[in-house]
Specification:
122 residues, mainly beta, 7-stranded mixed beta sheet, 4-stranded antiparallel beta sheet
Length: 122
């Protein structure tokens, strides 16, 4: 079984910074793409940023230039550094990972963390 545990959420004033982290644990072969999603009240969950195992990154237009995603393959962690935060960044942030559970698995399986709240006050 694979577990993803997020940490680092909190409350910050607009213009401030926060860093959220996610650690994967359990029994698996490797982790492919890791992503951060967010879901604000009354809205659909949206993709914020993604990073491949080879460190290729992608960002939603709304966060590009302000957020940075990074991973440590040795530690099975992924971080999201959030700068110049805006009230509209307020949401629960979820870690997602495509996990190859065994070397012979046909496809990676999707796993999710429990989410961490980020609140940006104006």
């Amino acid at each position: 079984q694979v577990q993803l545990v997020e940490s680092g959420g909190g409350t910050v004033q607009a213009g401030g910074s926060l860093r959220v982290s996610c650690a994967a644990s359990g029994s698996f072969f490797s982790i492919n793409t890791m992503r951060w999603f967010r879901q604000a009240p009354g809205k659909q969950r949206e993709l914020v940023a993604a990073v491949t195992r080879g460190d290729t990154t992608a960002y939603a237009d709304s966060v590009a230039g302000r957020f940075t995603i990074s991973r440590d393959n040795a530690k099975n962690t992924v971080d999201l550094q959030m700068n110049s935060l805006k009230p509209e960044d307020t949401a629960v942030y979820y870690c997602n990972a495509a996990v190859q559970t065994t070397s012979y698995a046909a496809a990676a399986a999707d796993y999710w963390g429990q989410g961490t709240q980020v609140t940006v006050s104006s």
